[in-house]
Amino acid sequence: MVNIDVFNGDADGICALQQLRLNEPLESTLITGVKRDINLLKRVSANAGDRITVLDISLDKNREDLCRLLELGAEIHYFDHHYAGDIPSHPHLITTIDTSPATCTSLLVNTHLGQRFCAWAVVGAFGDNFDNSAREAAATLELDEQQLDQLRQLGIYLNYNGYGATVEDLHFPPDQLFRSLHPYADPLDFVQQSPIFTRLKQGYEDDMTKGRQLKPEIETGQYALYLLPAEPWARRISGVLGNQLAQEAPRRAHALLTRLPDGGYLVSVRAPLATREGADELCRQFPTGGGRKAAAGINHLPEQQLDTFIARFKEIYS
Q1: What CATH number did the domain enclosing 290 receive?
Q2: Does 133 lie in the same domain as 269?
Q3: What pLDDT, on a 0 to 100 scale, did the predictor assign at position 165?
Q4: What order of strands is seen across the sheet that includes strand 93-97?
Q5: Other C-beta atoms within 10 Å of 220: how many?
Q6: Which of 8, 61, 205, 314 is the most exposed place for a label (fewest CB within 10 A)?
């Protein structure tokens, strides 16, 4: 039997896996990538009896390969909070899927484990921009405000590290980052002891300094749209800048379109935090789009579809 862990390379996917492997340490093959690389099950080869854990990637986007692996006899436990569509019924498939707008995969794993490693769930929730849910989960931890802010910073930096068109855009490959986190049962120990935290913090601050100088191309009381240059720093901050803008203007939708080196755009959409609706509906209208109700994206929006995207963005959020 082979153990395979398949996880999104953002804060939520990494922190979900961190909880599971602290609870049940085992040797496993890690399959992950940049945050936007969600068709991860196509990279999995398995045999009958192999055990696969899938974290924080849409079942709908991986349906064909999920069915392929089940037919081969693999046993799969699937944790996620993205749009799933129809969930297959199979004796070797266990699903823990909740698409409600106030939860994330780390919080689903936290409940599954009886809150055993709740601090890591809090980090994942903060990273995925679920600040209220993170604070609610943290209520049992008896943290002071400084400690809670350190967990929030860690979540933001882990999430920031996941954004990029390729792994080469990132400061750390997500599988390497997970292995660096894994020895720490308490995320506050990682914050205080690991030089990786310091490097992520510095990279985030440097990139965000550039990002905060950007001005919206389109701005109203209901929505704002930004165009970012074809630079690694811009690809790295596209998601975390969107999260920050959403926090600052919770009744406004935001779209960040980052130019790609070979043409077209990498798109991040944030629904208004006041409603957390519509982002996935918008992005799924385009071939490489997907996500969840509050936050979604398009991996490659062709130049000729820019006007169509802007029109539909305005239509949904006007």
Answers
A1: 3.10.310.40
A2: no
A3: 86
A4: 29-31, 3-7, 51-55, 75-80, 93-97
A5: 13
A6: 205
